[in-house]
Structures are given as C-alpha cells and as structure tokens.
Amino acid sequence: MSTTELQPTSMKRVAAAAVIGTSIEWYDFFVYAQLAALALNVVFFPEVSPLTGVLILFATMGVGFVARPLGAIIFGHIGDRIGRKKTLIMTLLLMGSATFAMGLLPGWDAWGAAAPIILVLLRLLQGLAAGGEWGGAALIGVEHAPPKKKALFGSFAQMGSPIGLVLATSVTIGVTTAFGPEAMLEWAWRIPFLASIILIPIGFIIRSKVAESPEFAALQKREQTRSVPLVTLFRFQLPHLLVGMGSFAAVFLTYYLMTSFMLVYATGEVGLSSEVSLPANLIAAVVEGLFIVVAAVLSVRIGTKPINVVSAIGLLLWAFPSFYLAAVAPPWGLYVSVGVSMVFVGAAYGVLASDVARLFTTDTRYTGASLSYHLAAVLGGGLAPIAATAILQATGGDVFFIALIPAVTAAIMIVCVLILPKLQQPDVREEGEATTAIGALVAA
Q: Among 291, 353, 404, 410, whose CB has the most other CB atoms within 10 angstroms?
C-alpha cells in the first residue's frame, strides 16, 4: 500500500502514536528540568549554595543532553536497520523506567554521594531514550504522509514537546500547591517522577498498533538497508547533518533558556516566587503548541521556507529585548518575553521536523535526522543553561552576554534555513523509490 492509499483511520493512528508517545517521553524529560531548579538541588546537593546547587543540577541535566546524540546513534542504527515502530517502543520503555526509578531514589541525607551519582546515571538513560525517540516519532509521521502534507504530519511529533511541558508544569505546580514548599523538598518531589508509571502503558498500547513506515517497509523489501548507517552518513551526507543541526540550534537554545534558565533567573535575581514564575512555562507551552499547529497548517499553502526564515529573524531580533523586559517589568515582562519567544520557536519547530528529515535518504534518515536534532539540543538545552547560569553568577545579574548567545545562534539559523531546501531529497513514492546516488548528494 502506498502512502497515498492510507485510510484516514490509519493516519489518525499515526498521528496519535506521534503525539501521545512524544508527550509522555517529554513529560519525563521536562519533569527533571523543572525539579532541578525547585527541589533536586537541595535534596541531592545540600552542602553548597542554592545557586551553585542549581548550576550543578544543570550540569547533570546536561548529561542527559550529551547522552542524546549517543542515543540518536544507537537507536538511529536500530531504526534504520529493523524499523521505526519497534525502536519507538524501546525508547518509550527505557525513558519511563528511568523516570520512575528517579522517584524512588534516596537523597544525599540517606545515601550520601551515591545518590547524585545514581541520579546522573538515570539521567543518562533518559538522555539515551530521548535520543532515539524524536527521530522515530517524526519519521512515522513524515514517511506515512503524502508529499504535500509531510510538514503537517511531521508536526505531530513536535506537539509532544508543549504537551509534555504542560503536563510536567501542571503536575509540578499542583504538587507544590497541594503540599507546600517544605513537603516538596522532603518527599513530594517524588510524585511527578512516579506518575510516569501510569503513562507508560498508554504509550505502549498506542504505538504497538501503528503500522511500520511505508517508505522503510519498501526499503526492507528491496533489502537496501545500510549495515552501518552512521558511516554512510558521515562519509556522504555530512553537509546535510551540519545544516540540519544549525537549523534547530537557535530553536532549542531559546526554548531552554526561556523554560529552564528563566526559572532560575526569575526566582534568584528578579525575586519572584516559584508560584509566580512557573506559569511562564505554561504560557510557553500554550503559545508554542498553538504556533506549531499554525505553522504546520500554513505550510500546506505556502511551504516551509518562509516560515523558517521569518522565525529565525524573529529569534534574532527578540533575543535582547526578551531578557531586559523580564528583568525590568516582572512578572508580566517575564510572561511577555517567554510568550513572544515561543511564537518564533513554535513556528520553526513545527515544520523543521519534515524539512530536516528530508535532508537524508531513507536508509540513513533515522540516524541523520536524530543526530541533527540532538546535537542541536546539546548546544541549546544542555550547554546553554549552564553557560547562562555561570555568566549570571560571574556578572552579578547582567543579561547582555546571556542574550548574545541566542542572538548569534539565530543568525546561524538564518543561513542554514536558506540553504536547507537545496539539500533536501526529492519526494518519492515507495513503488519507485531508489536510494539517491552519492554523486547527487554531493552535488546538492
């Protein structure tokens, strides 16, 4: 059956597998990021200053991000060899198990230095799972969809990010409100982690019912899967990888500065309580989710290039005003800063999944798309909050050099999204698909 022959019920199942599965996985990943700033620094690093504790926790959060490219390589290899569907089920189970184990982990007072060490190892497993998750979820949508709707169906995987953020933030706010800050530090921080065990079976059932990607199934039928996709990728498609990474970097960097670092800045420097600053994350999730949908639907009419270019320019122009507004006009300045940033983040994020996936041939697509995405995530989500917190500590609260980071990466993004369409592989039907010749890749 070709992609054009898929029944509406099949496409709905594909959409559900992408949205619900990624929502569960990003809930698990974001819970750690939020609790790092609100409780885990005290529970696992009680003998240092609060800001230093947060800096250390951002470093452990960075471990998860550094592990994501490794997960992209491991699960990308599996996904390019045995299929998208089976790989997605593996990543879901790994992520959920690691998150649940975090909720059972004793703190420094009970286990001493062993507690943060085990926490880092569990964060490492989260990172590996996240590294394999996104590529498969995006490809399930993109490779099932007809040519003109690839951006639309690729956006379903992207919706998991704002939905996961809403879930994580809502649970964190709910637990903090219900039990209070003192109980949060003593035991209630475990609840958001343990809640993951409820979500795993839901994702498993939905993903087990979706069909394998038609494009990959056709590739398997012709026995054209690569024995080592990573080798092919680095030998012949390295420019595509760099462009994909550069396209995503500013999106990730702005996103994590606004949703993770901004919590630290708002509570530590501006003086807002967590109850006042946390709603900024809900605003971020709602605005991002809305503009993912807007951009995906709009892409069917005008294509993806105008959306990417406008978003990149917007991220560049808004970088400095966003931080200064949050500093001088709390809390509404914070809310506006985050909200406007998420307009540009959501619009680009919504369509880049299909754009970056199509940079690679089917036999290396899981590996290539995943690495592009997660290498950008290391820079944007893993290193940027660490660098921003260190700069904040060194400068005594000056945000100029912090704002310079997203501005520079946005300028790089402008260049990459202008190049990106020239490197994309042509849309193909499974009946006539053939792996693009090496010469054509290099010439592109």
A: 353
